[in-house]
Amino acid sequence: MGRIKKKRVGVSLDMTPLVDVAFLLLTFFMLTTKFKPLEEVEINLPSSHAKYKLPESDVMTITFSPDGKIFLGVDSQQLRAQLFGEQNKLKQSIPVTLEELPSLAQEARSVNPKLRTVIKGDKESMYGPAEDVMNALQKANIARFELVTELSRDE
Is residue 56 part of a domain? Predict the structure, then answer.
């Protein structure tokens, strides 16, 4: 007598739960991700008619607020870790004193000589903090810097 062979039945796998989990993870990551680190202080820039745009990379930003606080930031995460320490490498900028500014600026320029210096000041600030920052940059032998303004809309 011959043996009866069973037909092989293909394995079916329900993909619905896998798709549900994938969309759940996608939604979770979209809702919890920070796309751009927030700045330490909100700055309202003065307006101007200049057409020159800021460079995308190799930028050291010095920001001062209306109450006189000074913040220093660089765009490179590796340079931030080297200057400010590993714990501050994810911060866009850190608060510095006027006495620390020349040494930190010199150190940043020695690591990356192509670093361009940019000063952002609030339009409500007095001229004193801007002058202090410029004098601190002169102590660090940084004579070239750019002042950031907002492009005015003439109607």
Answer: yes
| Nearest in space to 96 (alpha carbons), one of 40, 37, 36 | 40
Q: Based on the structure, what is the number of domains in the chain?
A: 1
Residue 155 confidence (pLDDT): 42
Residues spanned by the domain of 88 = 47-151
Cα angle: 58, vertex 34, 39; to 5 degrees = 50
Return all residues near 34 (Cβ < 8 A) that are at least 6 apart.
none
Question: Which residues have a Cβ under 8 Å from the Cβ of 31 and sit 6 or more positions away?
Answer: none
Long-range contacts for 80-85 (Cβ within 8 Å, ≥24 apart)? 82/111, 83/107, 83/108, 83/111
pLDDT at residue 132 greater than cutoff 90: no
What is the arithmetic mean of pLDDT over 25-29? 94
